[in-house]
Write a structure and sequence with these properties.
Number of strands: 0
Number of helices: 3
Helix content: over 70%
Distance between the termini: 64 Å
Strand content: under 5%
Length: 113
Amino acid sequence: MKIKQLKSAILLLSLISLPSLALAQPIQTPPTPVTRIEDILRILNTIINWVFTILLIVAVLFIMFAAFEYLGSAGDPEKTKTAANKLIYAAVAIGVGLIAKGIEFIVRQLIGA
């Protein structure tokens, strides 16, 4: 019993102290001021990439939520249909996001940017 408590305490302590490893990153230099159109495009591209990443994370969370709802429906047709609709909406969101990034890539290749 004592060994199990010791293992749990070590695991908890390591999980609590794990985020402090992120502080070991080197200090980055501050970004340069925006003076050209390329700087604005760089900032917009960074924002778009962040939004795309957040979209994918939220869509995956919705897929997991729909899966749990589907499992918890216990054969109830109404709950099963609701879960299936949520799954479809999450898949459509991922598809729209991927198409948007694909269009961006195609336009960049066409204009040679």
